[in-house]
Amino acid sequence: MRLAILNTVREYGGGEKWAISIAAALTDRGHEVILCGQPNSELCRRAAAVGLPEADVLLRHDLSLPSVMRLARLWRRLRPDVVLACTQRAVRLAAWSGWLWPPLRLVYRNGLKGSFKNKVYNRLIAPKISFLVANAAATQAEVLAYGWLPQAKLQVIYNGAAPPQTDPDAAIAVREEFGCRPGSTLILAAGRLVHDKGHHLLLQAIACLNATTSAEDWLLVIAGEGPQQAALAATVERLRLGDRVHLAGFREDIGALYGAADLLVHPSRREGAPNAILEAMAAGLPVVATAIPSARELLGEDAGCLVPPEDAPALATALAELLADAPRRARLGEAARRRAEERFSREASIGRWEALLTAVAAGEPLPDLTAPRRPKSVVG
Question: pTM, whole model, 2 decimals?
Fold first, then answer.
């Protein structure tokens, strides 16, 4: 199978991390994968850095005829069996390009609830989409409710997470880097610093926690970068949280941060299926998250602590309770690890993607995606 993965985002976040990961995994399984992104994008840079084939293509607004023509020329050159579009702009421009390159077989990965809207322009491109794959059932249900994309074209494939490589020395080094003494609790938040991730809500909760938990020894590390970084730094200073909160920026050693942390907090307002929650679960960390549908879906009834969205006092209370209850943290962390292993393994996710994409490439009926599967066809 020859697969082109199309992403129009210049920055690097969870969706781009997933694209690199699935490209590497499918390449290891014998498929030919090309990552297609904007010129000078982080996606293309990182793909080249790890030895993955990449192609840049300038893509402007969704109705840009020059962008559509560039894509059609790219498909004629690459001759992909399937194009996997990973953003709204990517799927719309790729769909329009199908009128100029008729062999197009298009799969759309919808990774964010509320992003693929019930709009006329999406209805127009729907016939060009072979499958829309959501990374959470809540996202799939949202699109299904529109009534104009058939259920047979909708699938759910969770992102999947593998247990992190354990390196006790690296974890110790991370704790020392942030001044987290032995016996103290390190709270981790991981994700791009954007409005949807809810970091301002988290800082409000931390301010409440700081005022009511003088006996506990803890600190918060926020790993990530993004447009809200300066505003968050100003809020930390305004709330006088400098001795409690560390804005760590983007970290290549995120596995070491999971190894060093005692719990993950994820205060999102809107998500698909949060990679940070899945990765924390695979690492055996207890999770405190806002009760958005996808977080409820991932954590279930007993693998985490859910609080109402936009409720900083409730978030502070949940954190305070876990800080004071190490045995409960251990129970939640073990339940999260088991749930990640049983329901959201990386190998299962890769197998389901491989089965779906290979079937689309061959024009065959979709196989059962409820279990990992290795299709017979490999490189085409």
Answer: 0.90
